[in-house]
Amino acid sequence: MRIDNKQRAEVLIEALPHIQKYSGKILLVKYGGSAMRDEALKRAVMGDLVLLSLIGVKVVLVHGGGPEITEMLGKLGKKTEFVDGLRVTDAETADVVQMVLAGKVNKSLVNLIQSLGGSAIGLSGADGGLIAAKKLDPRLGFVGEIESLNVKPVLDMLEMGYIPVISTVGCDAEGNVYNINADTAAAKIAGMLKAESFINMTDTAGLLEDENDENTLIGKIFVSEAQRMINQGQLSGGMIPKVSCCIEAIRRGVKKVFIIDGRVPHSILIETLTDEGMGTMFVSGENI
Fold first, then answer.
1. Which of 77, 92, 205, 210 has its CA 20 to 30 A from that of 268?
2. CA–CA separation, 178 and 176 (whole Å)
3. Spatial distance between the Cα atoms of 146 and 152, rounded to a whole number of angstroms
4. Is beta strand 120-124 parallel, antiparallel or unpaired with respect to 86-87?
5. Where do the H-state alpha helices sit in 116-237?
6. Can you name the residues that pair with 87 across neighbouring β-strands?
7. What are phi and psi of 262, to 5 degrees?
8. Who contacts 279 (Cβ-Cβ below 8 Å, separation ≥6)?
């Protein structure tokens, strides 16, 4: 469907109050799933981030890369083993994680942002002591738990007009490298940055009352209700850590937290710059 110039102008006018609300504020996007593996979707996501940056939003991108890690391990003849949904990471696998996340994936995203007219700098958790980590569970090897964050490198990049692109590789004082869950890291970084908004992109429409029916999308949910859904076993699989991270982000002071469908082109712009938005919005407090 083609739109005329009057309709284009109306779209821009509708976006104006949203642009004003986000101007000069920090928006952190956790990026992964289908939107990361589909080249057309990847280009759309990076285009959204460039546009937001150019209109004055301080954009931070935190990315995953699990499928790319699994692919590289397969090429090296290493089998991937998971315990409780977390990748068992021996020393060799930790090297691969660092190579793939902080190298191949991170730099490809930086390059794409710049090819679309944006300015980006890649960071890993090891840069500037961004993510200090310790071993989460001896069974998992070099899977890390975040001990502390130093977000000064991120703030410095934002101040200079760059989009920081962060891979969630952490390290300890001895120089050991740890694989950090990207959802967990994104929520904690958003809290430390006092972000205006945290957007978690997934492969579903958002939080669903019935996980098999996307028509049961929950548009807005209080964190207390979301926690009850976890406690009562209404959520399963990868949605549990995503919802838990959204709850944590709210509790760490992030003002707006969303789970949105990364399979929809320009879903970030739809959420941030339109009245209707999309996905699920998490809000603080209790629904009384």
1. 210
2. 7
3. 16
4. unpaired
5. 152-159, 182-192, 223-231
6. 82
7. -75, -5
8. 205, 206, 217, 258, 259, 260, 261, 267, 271
Q: How far apart are the first and last CA of the chain?
A: 43
Per DSSP, the three-state class of 65 is coil
Q: Is 161 helix (H, G, I), strand (E, B) or coil?
A: coil
Q: What is the residue-wise DSSP string for 202-234? A: ESSSS-BSSTT-GGGB-SEEEHHHHHHHHHTT-
pLDDT lower than 50: segments of the chain: 288
Long-range CB contacts for residues 97-103, cutoff 8 Å, separation at least 24: 97/69, 97/169, 97/177, 97/179, 98/124, 98/169, 98/177, 99/72, 100/65, 100/68, 100/69, 100/72, 101/63, 101/64, 101/65, 101/68, 101/69, 101/167, 101/168, 101/169, 102/126, 102/167, 102/169
- On whether the CB atoms of residues 288 and 230 are closer than 8 A, the answer is no
The three-state secondary structure class of 108 is helix
Do 203 and 33 form a contact (C-beta atoms < 8 A)?
yes
Phi, psi torsion values for 32, nearest 5 degrees: -175, -165
Copy the structure tokens of residue 258. 């969303």
CA distance 52 to 45: 11
Spatial distance between the Cα atoms of 117 and 93, rounded to a whole number of angstroms: 35
